[in-house]
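Fold it.
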Amino acid sequence: MSEPCDLTARAARRLIGSKQLSPVELVESCIRRVEAVDQAVNAMVARDFERARAAARDAEAAVARGDALGALHGLPVGIKDLENTEGLRTTFGSPIFADNVPAKDDRTVACLRAAGAIVLGKTNTPEFGAGANTRNAVYGATGNPFDPVRSAAGSSGGSAVALATGMVPLASGSDMGGSLRNPAAFSGIVGFRPTPGLVATEMHGTGWSPLAVNGPMARTVGDVALMLSAMVSDDARDPLATTVHGKRVRRAEDFSPVPEVDLSRLRVAITPDFGFAPTERIVREAFADKVAGFAGAFGRADDATPDCAGADEAFAVLRALGFLAAHEEKVRVRPDDVGPNVRANVAEGRGYSALDVARALTAQTALYRRWQAFFGEYDVILTPSITITPRPWSELFPTQIDGVATKNYFHWLALAYAVTLAGHPAVSLPVGRDAAGMPFGLQIVGPRGGDAFVLGVAASLERRLAGDAATARPVPDIAALRAAAPISAMPGFLGFS
């Protein structure tokens, strides 16, 4: 450990509970790291340092008094700028909300605070989470911690970069087409997409849709599970938060500590593309190389994939439907204040008919049922987390992969949205680097409702791979980031041109 901010969340929490680390010391260490390196990457865009310091002093006093301490007591956290934070600027990456200061926290933020977490600031996101490249017209672009000229992906790019650089030990994210998993892969951290409804939210206007979920991000699987344990609970405002009347369905203790999983008993399906995703050659090669090194740990490992027929078309329609519901009025009334990705989704949504929506919902249901049959034979699926290695953030989205044109601005997210459509839990685990020297993310997909199980698989694999530099979590060069030129000076930093 070089500084307290580099500790894992679980280690820091243990030290706080045993009075070996002060929450004040930890918060100050995180603040110093933000101030030292954020100019290079632009991840922590709205800062709440004075209130964080006050909360840290209160947390320290609670430890001294011998109070009962929450699971996240004294741990600094970054909150994605799509989530409302009481008294702290929340812009959604949009000029329309550039001066928005919410009067109360979203449910997820309130749960984290109730567990003892200390909000350090807001992390950058693309406008309304649209597009897996974290840049907007309010705060500008977020750079990759391993090369600030390159993309951090998105839409939880600011959270991933803040974690990778040690600004915070925990950060929130959300995921529709891989918005947790994609930036986790690009920045070499862990991102977990839970089963829809496990982390309840009151913020989705189309609450019956299972596409968008909130979830935890951290540097280790154990830390993700710890954060998840504070986020799970029921909320009647979320229709997908499954409830059995009079019974407790979601329990913190189901997720932290992570359950033990014996890899040698698992039946594993391995696929670089789900049979349809446009996976780049460098990613395919890295995936094959990494998996060859640990496939023998499983009881059975086959080259196999569930049938994902219709995934592209179904996701395109259902994604556009959500954007139409959320943003049609903004595009119609204030088109000059809305970026190209949101406008494109709304325009696409306007062109679909009720028949198109019916067909998309039918295709999604058919895909889901094929996945259930597939998981009757396999316990988990392994894929790359994302189809490409990080490219310059100046490229708004990849227009081609290995010389072949992509279908649209989100086609390159197909490895993620296949899982989204099925509604299964998935984790992106950092597994060394690819041939370009950039982080490589392994996607581990679990069975229906198998959130704790898939985290257990990831934790077992994480332990197995940690001892080899070729497969351990990569760490960015903090000294180089301290000395780097400001990302704000790069051409095209602010906006979309």
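The chain has a mean pLDDT of 96.
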